[in-house]
Amino acid sequence: MRHTISVLVENKFGVLARIAGLFSARGYNIASLAVSETLDPTISYMTIVVEAQDEKILEQIKKQLNKLIDVITVTDFTKKEHIDRELVLTKINYSPKDKEKLESIFLKYVGKIIHCKDDIAIIEAVGNHVQIKSLLEELDKFGIKELIRTGKLVISN
Amino acid sequence: MKGAQILLASLKKAGVEVIFGYPGGQVLPIFDALYDFNIKFILMRHEQGAAHAADGYARATGKVGVCLATSGPGATNLVTGIANAYMDSIPMVAITGQVGTHLIGNDAFQEADVTGITRPITKHNFLVKDVKDLARTIAEAFYIASSGRPGPVLIDIPVDVQRAEADFIWPEDIKIRSYQPTYFGHPGQIKKAAKLISLAKKPIIYAGGGVITSGAHFVLRELAERIQAPVTTTFMGLGCFPSTNKLYLGMLGMHGTAYANHATMEADLIIAVGARFDDRVTGRLDHFAPYAKVIHIDIDPSSISKNVKVEIPIVGDAKNIIGELLEEIKKVPDTSLWLKTVDAWKKKHPLTYKSSGKLLKPQYILEQLWGLTKGDAIICTEVGQSQMWACQWYKHLNPRTWISSGGLGTMGFGFPAAMGAKLGVPEKEVFNIAGDGSIQMNIQELATCVANKINVKVLIFNNGYLGMVRQWQELFYKKRYSYTPITSPDFVKLAESYGAVGMRVTKKEQVKKAIQKAMKINNTVFVEFIIEPEENVWPMVPAGHAINNMIDGLA
After folding, report:
1. What is the predicted ipTM?
2. DSSP state of B360
3. B299 Cβ under 8 Å from any chain A Cβ
4. pTM score
5. Superfamily covering domain A82-156
6. Interface contacts A/B by beta carbons within 8 Å
7. For labeling, which of B118, B230, B323, B388 is most exposed (least CB within 10 Å)?
8. Dist. CA A146–CA A100, nearest whole Å
9. What is the largest CA-CA distance in chain B?
10. How far is B408 from chain A (nearest CA, A)?
């Protein structure tokens, strides 16, 4: 099962390595990771998405995260109400005749063409996990050449 | 002041009495400052010895042990000792030199990413890049190492930081917002635990190293006697409950006593205190203690419900929690029938060995050692059969008198650890129980012992094998003794060549006299006992079996 965990940490060098180490030492792959400063520049906020085959091991990882000296709080959003968003940048095959089709797609999603050159368009889109998934399915019909994602951001509601 | 002087002044402020270490290129400023600084420094013969000596000092005294090494190989040589302290939750501060800040990451001479290497084996580590942060970092390191669940903390100090100038400001009060260990148990949980205890018919107390760390041995005894529950200890818990007490069951687990294992398997309540249900204790996990509800008292939340399902977790300091529990227990359970059952197991399955003809038995040597010391000594060990015999056959009475590598099982630990213990508690006689294999892993420290007049007694049980591995090969690998027969130097001559005293014992009637003689000699003594070569440690739970599924080759 996919888990979304947020970790509030001291904004110091080495903290990311400590956190990543707890996952890698147990053979867990981090599916996505977003890190940035908070309002208080001495604190950073990490959002980690991880696929956990064994809930018990994930429980251990959360306790171990809490045990790290530089970790302030750990929140598992999996069973908590939250809003999540992700920003996607993607390059797709493009010809001017596609413009209308694309515009109709963006009536359903938060996104737009931000750059066009020759036969390539760069698309920017924001949405939750489900929205991004179905948008990418639609864009795939044009042919996705490149895809870059920020990883999930979550906020409690 | 220069960074190096700030370091030493900070160590003084932190109450450090002795540093174990070794010089090198990237700690030259520190050693220059040490030259005329009033602090005891023990020059070891290997950095691994320095880490183990600091560890042994910490275990014997309860204070933070300190070791110091140069960058690169000096620091990597500390690694085993740091990992060892981490596994056994020992407070230690390891200080390493680092190449200059401008060279870090350049593969400079004797450079290693030591904070990277030690990240998973330290409670925390620091790279100090600015001399202004040095004093505060050291204060934080000592606070982190010694509070909560203790552990080793490493401070990596680049050589230019050691040379840089700053004012020395020692922070008297350390607060870390992201690190606040819990010391007092949740009152609701303690109430629930007290109720569960009063309802128990077959309770057992399972006590670990946390009891010693917290100084909870007195309240633990009070609890055991009040509720009349038998007590078993882990390897790390040896000494937290007197072996001579009639409620004591000895150690449980793979080489535990049969009666401790039976009692654990039949118990209806396990009160776990400062112990972590590791695999050497539980054996096959899904068969472990099937009838027991578990109350788990531990300062580290990540130790609770890690391996065994826990009914009542209580996070906090063992001494505080047991104290509160004692006040909360209104009704004491009637355990008289249970104690009778336990006593019957004790009579039916005592610890025993065959005292055969001519060859010396290690168990006999330990019985003699007990007879001569009556528990008033510090027993250090190496790792393997000799270590397990020392668990079983010496009657551990007091906390901080059993010093042995538990979680990591580090051969070569005992000898330098014994030196650290002796320096910390000079009034106590310190023994190191060693095998002929293990003693050769840090034997260079003989020079350190003699040079510093550190008077420890090393009892070498020489069976010509790496005995524990040989035992497993005998039992599980059809006696194919692959590379376990091992040769040794002449330990008597070797000791003498270092300026220590060597003795060799081959006969039963010499054992007591030899130990007595060694105790009278004001020098390091190696006493080599030529023992039965294929003696095994019994009883034994084969790996992956339930702990009441013991084998013993004595029948």
Report:
1. 0.91
2. B
3. no
4. 0.96
5. ACT-like. Chain A, domain 2 (3.30.70.1150)
6. 35
7. B323
8. 22
9. 72
10. 17
